Amino acid sequence: MTLHTWLAAATAGLPPEVAHRVRDEYAAHLTDAQAAGVPEAEALLALGDPVRVRRALHRTYLGEERLRGLRTMPRMPFVTGVAWGMPPLYGLGMAWIWADSTPFPGWRLAAPVLTLLLIVGVWPPIHRLPTERRTLWRNMCAGLSLQFMLWGQNALQWWLGEDVSWPWLLPVLMLLFSGLLLWTVLEDARLRRTLALQGERA
Amino acid sequence: MNTREQLRLLILAVLERQPEHGYAIAQAIKARSEGLLTAREGTLYPVLHALEAEAQIESAEHEVGGRVRREYRLTEKGRGALAKARGDWARQVRAVGAVIGGPV
What we know:
The structure holds two protein chains of two kinds. Chain A is mainly alpha-helical. Chain A contains nine helices and no strands. Chain A has helices at 3-10, 16-35, 40-47, 50-60, 64-72, 76-97, 110-127, 131-159, 169-197. In chain A, helix 1 packs parallel to helix 4 (50-60), helix 6 runs antiparallel to helix 7 and helix 7 runs antiparallel to helix 8 (131-159). The longest helix of chain A is centred in the C-terminal third of the chain and has 29 residues, at 131-159. Chain A is elongated, with a radius of gyration of 25 Å. Chain B is 59% helix and 17% strand. Chain B has four helices and three strands; from the N terminus they run αβααββα. In chain B, strands 1-3-2 form a three-stranded antiparallel sheet. In chain B, a hairpin with a 2-residue loop joins strand 2 (57-64) and strand 3 (67-74). The relative contact order of chain B is 0.17. The interface between A and B is medium-sized, with 27 and 20 residues.
């Protein structure tokens, strides 16, 4: 294996700017090793398995394909529509189902109203983020809105002593949206590191 | 403390003395451990990048002998993390020593 093939394997799938810095560092490392009298083959062996290095680098930086996906954002209008459209639709559905009840159980609109308020609250700060981070967080909002509404609705029913059709849904939805939030935070950290290396506003 | 956390601690400890470039960090770990710690050198840079992303170290390029090298330096945040990691490590060593006995 040559330095070229080792570097190609270690930096596969990384954005060009990240790969460039990584390649420079490993090339300098090898030059230092050779200057210290270590033969190239031995120095390459000391670097270890390039696939393992690639996995470690991908834990720190976002892959090129993922980054491109966040930049081109082909589904963005759909995502925006879901984030903003789901709470009013859900609220209207609730109002239609309970329209004949007297007095009208206003608390049944609490989950969609709260979700809509959350969307209204987080959308402006998200809008100020760089394109890639904006796409990531808007995707998260869209994914979260329906889960949060369903969870809120079920939690309120349970709290008020009503029969809940699927009680297991409460912890499951809680796990789902906690997982989605955690995944987005970790993905955002990798994205910020990648953008920082690209010299962009992160 | 897993292998990756150990490598983070070793890097921070090496950089506590003075700023270094990647190859020198790897050599310092090997030399100070009298050859016992010989982690694959390739895994050093992903850890350096992660530490830099966490602002525990910072880096800058310098030209040395006509070649550009990236030198890493410990930050105040890194100094704090090193002190904490040292404490954790000492507790682990004491705990294992108490179980296995003999000189610690």
